[in-house]
Amino acid sequence: MATLNLRNIYIIPSKTALGLLSIIALLFLLGINFQNSLVYIISFWLLALLLLNIFYTWRNLAGLTLTAVGIEPCFAGEKAVLEVELSRPTPYAKYALELTWEDAMQVQIDLISTQTARIKLSHSTQQRGRFTPPRLKISTRYPTGLALAWAYVHLDIHGVVYPAPVEKAFQAQGESYGDNSESGLEITGGTNDFGGIRDYQYGDAPKRVHWAKFAQTGKLYTKTFVDYASHEVWLDWETLPMPGIEVRLSHLCRKVLECHQEQRQYGLKLPGKVIAPDKGDAHKARCLQALALFGLAND
After folding, report:
1. Other beta carbons less than 10 A from residue 165's beta carbon
2. 229 phi/psi in degrees, rounded to 5
3. H or E stretch covering 150
4. DSSP secondary structure string, 172-216?
5. Which UniProt keywords are given for this protein, alphabetically ordered (predicted)?
6. Which tens digits make up the pLDDT trace of 239-276?
7. Which tens digit of pLDDT belongs to each residue from 44-74?
8. Do 210 and 221 contact (CB within 8 A), yes or no?
9. Is the dihedral of CA 252, 256, 257, 263 positive or negative?
10. Residue 35 falls in which region: left (phi positive, over 0), alpha (psi -120 to 50) or beta
11. Angle at 33 between CA 29 and CA 37, to 5 degrees
């Protein structure tokens, strides 16, 4: 959070203001030369307007508070989106506020009828890891453009940039991507799910006999049941044959996305870190963050 005040707001006159100041100086000299009180009044009146305009330009920024709400995670090469909240504790409305990165997009906003407003700013990313947004510039030329006031704000917030996923991930031998059973591996002789019927064999329990079928055909049949073992997929760093840390991370990133889309339970094995099999959005975020911060200090 950062609040704008006398210590961090800079202000300079525009070229138009400098031209006006030259005219005021010329009028003042003419007033001295001709001892003309009307010229004095006009020159001082213009100077007062210029100074008043500079004050209002400064006040348009003074008291503003900027708070970083959050940074949405993204993949390397995409734009990281930072949400910022602007608030004005003073009763004065704020007009024509411009927010820019040092080298990127510009957003203009007014705070008139509301005390707070939220805006989103995007910034390009090049590599995985922690993303720290550069300093943010907020400026204004309100009300007349005769002065420019600005301040630089460093927001104490960090985001995560995931590795860029490859288009198609390598599939190691033994991985269960091709299994058609949504429930997992079928285990015969189970007790939970109905699996079909077979001919009655001596010794079958009476409760397993399909009596409805016996009433229809006059022949004894036995009901069979199956259980399903959950398919837990392990995404293992060591099973990837390709060289290069970033290439492996990109393949594992794609596998995480595929397993999440197929709603499989999957775990992640990295050198020095193991994430137990699970599924869901939170699990996907944990795995992607582990890939993003792999090998970085204080990961």
Report:
1. 21
2. -90, 135
3. strand 147-153
4. -TT--TT---SS-EEEEEEEEEEEEEEE--TT--GGGB-HHHHHH
5. Membrane, Transmembrane, Transmembrane helix
6. 888 888 999 999 999 999 999 998 889 999 999 999 99
7. 999 999 999 999 999 999 989 999 999 999 9
8. yes
9. positive
10. left
11. 80
Measured between alpha carbons, how far is 45 from 79 in angstroms, rounded to an integer? 50
156 touches 2 (CB < 8 A): no
Q: Where are the alpha helices (DSSP H) in the chain?
A: 15-34, 37-61, 211-217, 245-261, 281-292
Alpha-carbon distance of 111 to 99, in angstroms, equals 13
Write out 49-91 in H/E/C secondary structure.
Answer: HHHHHHHHHHHHHCCCEEEEEEEECEECCCEEEEEEEEECCCC
Could you tell me how many residues make up the chain?
299
For residue 289, report the phi and psi dihedrals to the nearest 5 degrees. Answer: -70, -40
Supply 22's token pair: 């030259």
Convert the pLDDT of each residue in 208-240 to its tens digit.
Answer: 777 787 788 878 878 776 545 456 789 999 888
Q: 292 Cβ partners below 8 Å, 6+ apart?
A: 73, 128, 129, 160, 161, 162, 163
Q: Rounded to 5 degrees, what angle do the CA atoms 138, 141, 142 make?
A: 110
Q: Can you read off the two tokens belonging to residue 67?
A: 């708070």
Candidates 152, 149, 139, 137; CA nearest to 54 is 149
Out of 79-83, 187-191, 273-277, which region has the weakest mean confidence (pLDDT)? 187-191
Can you tell me the distance from the alpha carbon of 54 to that of 112, in angstroms, rounded to the nearest whole number? Answer: 20
Q: State the pTM of this model.
A: 0.69
Residue with tokens 């001295």: 32
176: pLDDT strictly greater than 50? no
Which residue, 72, 161, 186, 157, is CA-closest to 120?
A: 72
